[in-house]
Specification:
This protein has a domain at 113-330. Helix content is 27%, strand content 39%. The chain has helices spanning 5-15, 23-76, 92-100, 113-127, and strands at 133-142, 149-161, 170-180, 185-192, 200-202, 206-218, 222-236, 243-257, 267-274, 277-285, 291-293, 306-312, 315-323, 327-330. The radius of gyration is 35 Å and the shape is flat.
């Protein structure tokens, strides 16, 4: 007999058992298929939404970078847009916009955790006369009982204990101690010289007070921002019951001019008075970015003010810089 594929396929299909599906089962299968299709559509819509959100975020990021870049270019050019090839110049609107970048701070807490830690380490080192030192070990860990973040600190430099008068003066090249991560407390202090026996130890906890101060003021053409932080630590010498004191300070500040800066010719005069220090200068060249660094004015408390007088192009402006909310931190 000749082979006929169509006939053989038909005979094979006839021999297969027929599948009988009830109406209820058929409806169940159909419902499951419809649910699966609905879930698939939801998944596709969510995927499209996520993709669209990513596109919007990317566009917003690019636009923000472009705007900040444009502001930086105009700002460093002194606000003179004609330097960029245009015919626009400084306006009161632009001056107002720049001034908003230097609005009054809302808090005087300006130190980062790293800066607090550095100030605390310097204050402890200064407690033992360590004016010149370097950190050779800084290991992040946590306290054994309260699981607070802390650091194991090792310093290398020139340290001493005692005065040489009533108490014996002892020198050491290494100083190690434990320090809470926020810089509020130090303990387990040990001083020595390399691998030799310890020169002295101090096991009591040292509380470290960090005071932060921010002073701000503004006139029609100038904004002043001055930030000062002081870390203080003290202990009682158990030999003669004399209090010993260590401190560290961090200062930064500037006067910002909001007017048009003319390249190569514009000068200004200024005078600053505040705390126990003052500063002044005449015929000082104006930087293109209009920013004048402020010196350390040694402010003692937030009740003090900084008096500012600035003169440029024959126009003098005077204003006061006042403290923004006093705050101190103590362990």
């Amino acid at each position: 007999m000749d082979w006929n594929p169509d006939r053989d396929l038909e005979n094979t299909l006839r021999r297969l058992p027929r599948l009988h599906i009830s109406e209820a089962e058929s409806e169940r299968i159909l419902a499951e298929l419809q649910q699966e299709e609905a879930r698939s559509r939801v998944h596709r819509r969510q995927h499209v939404r996520r993709w669209a959100a990513q596109v919007r975020n990317a566009v917003a990021a690019v636009a923000a970078v472009a705007i900040i870049g444009a502001l930086a270019i105009v700002y460093t050019s002194g606000g003179n847009l004609s330097r960029l090839g245009g015919n626009l110049s400084w306006s009161s609107g632009w001056s107002s916009l720049v001034r908003t970048l230097f609005d009054k701070p809302r808090t005087n807490s300006w130190l980062t955790q790293k800066q607090k830690r550095s100030l605390a380490i310097e204050a402890v080192a200064n407690l033992y006369g360590g004016k010149s030192f370097r950190v050779i070990k800084l290991v992040h860990t946590q306290t054994e009982t309260t699981y607070q973040p802390m650091y194991l600190v090792e310093l290398q430099g020139h340290f001493r204990q005692g005065t040489g008068a009533k108490t014996k003066l002892v020198s050491a090249s290494d100083l190690s101690f434990s320090l809470l991560a926020d810089g509020s407390q130090a303990w387990a202090l040990t001083a020595g010289n390399g691998n030799s026996a310890d020169k002295w130890t101090y096991n009591s906890a040292l509380n470290i007070q960090i005071q932060q101060m921010v002073y701000w003021g503004q006139s029609s053409s100038w904004t002043g921002l001055y930030q000062q932080a002081v870390a203080q630590v003290w202990r009682t010498n158990h030999t003669d019951h004399r209090s010993e004191f260590g401190s560290a300070e961090k200062v930064q500040g500037s006067l910002q001019y909001h007017g048009k800066v003319e390249a190569g010719g514009q000068v200004f005069d200024y005078s600053l008075a505040g705390g126990s220090a003052s500063a002044s200068g005449r015929n000082i060249p104006m930087p293109l970015n209009g920013r004048i660094p402020m010196p350390d004015l040694q402010m003692a408390n937030p009740q003090e003010t900084i008096r500012v007088s600035v003169s440029t192009k024959g126009h003098q402006e005077q204003f006061m810089m006042r403290a923004v909310g006093p705050r101190s931190e103590q362990g």
